[in-house]
Amino acid sequence: MSxxxxxxxSVSTEKEGPGRLASVYSEVQTSRLNHSLxxxxxxxxxxxxxxxxxxxAAGNPEEIAKLFPNVFGQPSAMLVxxxxxxxxxxxxxxxxxxxxxxAPGGHNVISGIFDYLQERTKxxxxxxxxxxxxxxxxxxxxxLNSEFVYPYRNQGGFDMxxxxxxxxxxxxxxxxxxxxxxxxxxxGLVVIGGDDSNTNACLLAExxxxxxxxxxxxxxxxxxxxxxxxxxxxxxxxxxxxxxxxSEMIGNVMTDARSTGKYYHFVRxxxxxxxxxxxxxxLQTHPNITIIGEEVSAKKQTxxxxxxxxxxxxxxxxxxxxxxxxxxxxxxxIDFIPEVQxxxxxxxxxxxxxxxxxxxxxxxxLRSQSHELFEFLPQAIQEQLxxxxxxxxxxxxxxxxxxxxxxxMVETELEKRKQEGxxxxxxxxxxxxxxxxxxxxxPSNFDANYCYALGYGAGALLHSxxxxxxxxxxxxxxxxxxxxxxxxxxxxxxxVERRHGxxxxxxxxxxxxLEGAPFQKFASLRDxxxxxxxxISPGPVQFVxxxxxxxxxTLMLELDAQA
Amino acid sequence: MSxxxxxxxSVSTEKEGPGRLASVYSEVQTSRLNHSLxxxxxxxxxxxxxxxxxxxAAGNPEEIAKLFPNVFGQPSAMLVxxxxxxxxxxxxxxxxxxxxxxAPGGHNVISGIFDYLQERTKxxxxxxxxxxxxxxxxxxxxxLNSEFVYPYRNQGGFDMxxxxxxxxxxxxxxxxxxxxxxxxxxxGLVVIGGDDSNTNACLLAExxxxxxxxxxxxxxxxxxxxxxxxxxxxxxxxxxxxxxxxSEMIGNVMTDARSTGKYYHFVRxxxxxxxxxxxxxxLQTHPNITIIGEEVSAKKQTxxxxxxxxxxxxxxxxxxxxxxxxxxxxxxxIDFIPEVQxxxxxxxxxxxxxxxxxxxxxxxxLRSQSHELFEFLPQAIQEQLxxxxxxxxxxxxxxxxxxxxxxxMVETELEKRKQEGxxxxxxxxxxxxxxxxxxxxxPSNFDANYCYALGYGAGALLHSxxxxxxxxxxxxxxxxxxxxxxxxxxxxxxxVERRHGxxxxxxxxxxxxLEGAPFQKFASLRDxxxxxxxxISPGPVQFVxxxxxxxxxTLMLELDAQA
Lengths: 563, 563
What we know:
Two copies of one chain form a homodimer.
Chain A: H1 27-33, E1 47-51, H2 61-67, E2 77-81, E3 93-99, H3 106-120, E4 125-129, H4 133-137, E5 141-143, H5 146-149, E6 163-164, H6 171-183, E7 188-193, H7 195-210, E8 216-221, H8 239-260, E9 264-269, H9 276-285, E10 289-290, H10 293-298, H11 303-319, E11 325-330, H12 338-353, H13 368-376, H14 379-387, H15 402-420, E12 429-434, H16 436-439, H17 445-463, E13 469-474, E14 484-489, E15 494-499, E16 502-507, H18 517-531, H19 553-562
Parallel strand pairs in A: 3-4, 3-6, 3-7, 7-8, 8-13, 9-11, 9-12, 10-11
Antiparallel strand pairs in A: 1-2, 2-14, 4-5, 13-14, 15-16
Helix pairs in contact in A: 3-17, 8-9, 9-18, 11-15, 12-13
């Protein structure tokens, strides 16, 4: 694990394109590069695999069994101390691919696989497929050696081999993947990705085994959104770092709000499908108001309900003398509001067939509730809905800046209350969106260690001949030494969805559970946070010192609840 | 310097309003609270004051002498080791005020003054004026004791006593300030602020001395913008932390840009008058393009010039296969462009007297260059210029999101080049504004130490009977032990400006010097940064470990150049 000779000074991967030059690293980057990574004790010497009982599926096991005849029902694999029996002179040929959006720690998963191969298998070869799954299909890869991998240790981003959002779906695409597996004589492939990518990994495992190819496939749980998790996979990597980076900024904004005393900061946070990031940031920082999409959806709230909730608290705060505050909103908020979905559907229909006349006659085509909602929206949002469409002609919901929309709606509502005499202050809303800033941060110690163990463990699973499993590292509340390492049958995470008349396997996104410990803790405190100021400033992520090894609230609360 | 007993557990300042509760601090906040602050060795024991030669002014010394008959020409004061002769049993009554926008470290200036009084003067009293200079005029204050001050040690923000933007200007207002000084029997007042606030501090010093009041006034250099500095005051506090927080985010965005390979991130950074923050962040992170307002102004560039400069680099990069990048823009960019100033002036005139007709006949009233520029602006900006006005009916230049404007103009220009055949890629611009996120960050070790020394030194100057000086801590490239401590005549920083037919004293803002070392270094590297990727990710500010005590490039380069 010491740096190879060539990396002292300039590591020239520049010819390859945008490669890293450790010679221009910042002091913190350099200190991270040289930071040694601890391994769980079971990975420090030889091990045996202890298989669990046969697995089932998260739902509709019969259908999943039909879709995965070759890999369904596999037991989970747990690494336990033992004499192993794995041949150290067996050289392996292993590929790795990054799939989907960046998450801090991806480079450490690769480092973990690489180090496993270096340390436990003689003469192995490792390929990094470039630009995501497309790299597998086009057989576009880089051969990974120490010089290539080293500058990325403990560094953020996915730029070592880059990522992509393509999927391997059609029979032709599976054929291309097979050809690559055969051409490179791959013993194994590690797919680092989210729910879709891991489903895809399992389909590849199934396909390779069905075709009698030797190539095994192991998945790794990646997503800053935190919505890929289950009992065996307690968290997805990147969530910890991203939430900490966002929380640093939120804490700073809170201190600013309290110091100036005149702004309401509306902070939109990444996370379109689930609100885990928003919830975790709330637990870290104690904002005055936090909107959790899953709750809005469960309570069938309207946009007006959400606006009123925010406005009510602003009015109550003004009576206490506080005309400032911080409000967290998940990026996917409006996707959680049924009436908004209905309006969008109607708009897409109308825009496809009718002319939008300036006089507004077209609005008569909207159902009355949708019409009412449309009129309730700020003018800028109305225009955006009508004018900006994607290549399919659909309204671009993702482009709506929810935090700005909410500011405008709250402003309008407060104006009303001013006239009614129930509010007499000046409202100043400031908008923020924290997204790109967090997903490529330098991995926290937790993510760095977790990812290294995930990768090292994936190497061990492939070396043991396992396929169709997701690398699973557990007991995360304990010191790294005591973490458990193994693999969980990907099919056990799956259910089916009916699409175009066919069953499709899916790993359901883990949403914020309203009965779960993290939301319950938040719910028990939010009233106090709303009216008193209990702001916490987590500060910048520390890599050394007493605070460096803390993990996140969501994970700890969930682990505590399971214990 | 150890925490008072009451602060173990909950420090209840809640009754006062939005006070801090150390009991809800994050681990990093708590560790900062308990972080001990080093003092320059000259402040560790008794000292003498060595006076320098009489001072002059930065310009028009005769006029400054007339405006400050009682304090003009004072020598600078340097603290040197000595037997002192200051009575330790002399109790002082000292006030402190925070003026203007927040800057990390303000609380440590207050802690420094407080600790000086506690340790060197028996039975002293300290008052914190609330909400800025208005607190002086209205005699609104909190009495500062250990319990009150302790929870704010090494913490960001200005919320201990809050700040404000009022000025003490009229004879009535000076009278109010005198009344407060007399009522509280003040021996001294420390004004923590930027160029205007320090000018104001000097006017107060002059006024108090002119009226034979005993109250002395000492200023402290505060502003994240970094535009209050001179030989004796090498930097203003807060600049270091703010630039580091922004650079962390920029570094993350760079890693993201390189990983996805498809976005141009346009980052607007705080700093309306000068571009020091943008320049420092560029030196820390090596972006592909950086616009420095002072250079745009010196070269009399037009908005079209700036757009072309950006577009040219984007085209060159696309030929190298890089369709991504990071671009830094100072908040005040358009204030630096003469033609924009001209257009705004004409618009203000037209909007005040004419109707803006939809057909656009009103545009004929614009001079031809202004008309051309107006048509060059994106439609959204045109509308913003016409529709959004401040209470005086003027165009709200400050509200223009320069980064979004530039994205649109670059997009339009690239579209043209596509049609001409000189560009054939897809351009995706992403906008960011980093402002509030940085100005209330947890102070870096440098800012924490610098501010503590500034405050402790201000206490020493007041104890020595000095007035009209700005607290000056020097030799900042050396370890804290070796820092010099003293005071510089505020009048020596001043020039006059003619306003409404009268000479007004001003401390001129220190702009980015195009001949200065920081800009020269940037200029020598920017072509390489433009086409190669030399991104640096500074990572989160570290408080312990090998990287914790680094300062910023601007300061170090300027100190080196002076040496």
